[in-house]
């Protein structure tokens, strides 16, 4: 299994706008579990501590294999979701590893 973790810095600066951005990101990413083959789970979460140095939001995704993660990246529904995410973020980091 491959775990894919992505973190983002949000464009939003105030708490309400950040919460709305996280909700929008979760709304487009989390349902992909039921759409894209090979995804075991997707979980979007907002940072709750050390705001001055931590990233604002993350997604943790578990995939059956690296091939499944690759297929997810190319899937049209993921590409559409990623476009929504890009509307809300300024920076991105990620890491992928075997579990």
TrEMBL record:
Superkingdom, natural source: Bacteria
Boundaries of every Stress-response A/B barrel domain copy: 2-97
Membrane spanning residue stretches: none
InterPro entries linked: Dabb, Dimeric_a/b-barrel
Pfam families with a match to the protein in the record: Dabb
Protein's UniProt name: Stress responsive A/B Barrel Domain
UniProt source species: Salinibacterium xinjiangense
Lineage of the species this protein comes from: Bacteria, Bacillati, Actinomycetota, Actinomycetes, Micrococcales
